[in-house]
Amino acid sequence: MFAAWHIEQVEERFKKIYEEKDSIIFLYEMNNTICGWVHVYGKCIIQLEYAEIGGLVVDTAYRGKGIGKHLMRKAEEWAIEKGYSEIRLRSGGHRKEAHDFYERIGYENIKWQEVFSRKL
Questions:
Q1: Contact 84/49 with Cβ under 8 angstroms?
Q2: Cβ-count burial 15-28 (b if 16+ within 10 Å, e if not)
Q3: What is the chain's pLDDT, residue by residue, as a tens digit (120 residues)?
Q4: How far is CA 28 from each of CA 34, 83, 95, 112, rounded to the nearest angstrom?
Q5: Structural domains of the chain, ranges and CATH numbers in brackets
Q6: CA-to-CA distance for 8 and 46, rounded, in angstroms?
Q7: Cα gap 59→30, rounded to integer Å
Q8: What is the pTM of this model?
Q9: What are the residue ranges of helices labelled H in 1-114?
């Protein structure tokens, strides 16, 4: 599941996220194995406030078992408890399978955008 990262990097990032006040990670465990997680956080910009999914990962061996849907529902419950009336997520344009999943669980594509980055 985390093949591209060293476990120490993952642990450090999870720790930083855990320490943020308006952010949470939900883990899904099955048979003593973490097989999925979702990160959700509050976002406030001039126009509006909403919750945003920072990441959703389900190990390929566990997909199709309702884990992703369960994790997304937990993220939605957290957002409601925090007072948000909307939850958003971003997904790469090439991730057709993920887009189909999000639409199946009630999400709609509200815009297409390009993301620009500059290394600092």
A1: yes
A2: eebeeeeebbbbeb
A3: 444 556 787 788 778 877 878 999 999 999 888 899 999 999 887 878 999 999 999 999 999 999 999 999 999 999 999 999 999 999 988 899 999 999 999 999 998 877 787 889
A4: 6, 24, 22, 30
A5: 22-104 (3.40.630.30)
A6: 36
A7: 11
A8: 0.82
A9: 7-19, 67-81, 96-104
Tokens of 4: 């591209």
Question: How many whole angstroms separate alpha carbon 81 and alpha carbon 64?
Answer: 28
The DSSP code sequence of 35-46 is EEEEEEEEEE-S
Q: For the chain, how many residues are written?
A: 120
Q: In what order do the strands lie in the sheet with 87-89?
A: 23-30, 33-44, 49-58, 87-89
Residue 10 and residue 57: Cα distance in Å, rounded? 13
Tell me which DSSP letter residue 105 carries.
T
Strands 87-89 and 33-44: unpaired
CA 100 to CA 110: how far, in whole Å? 14
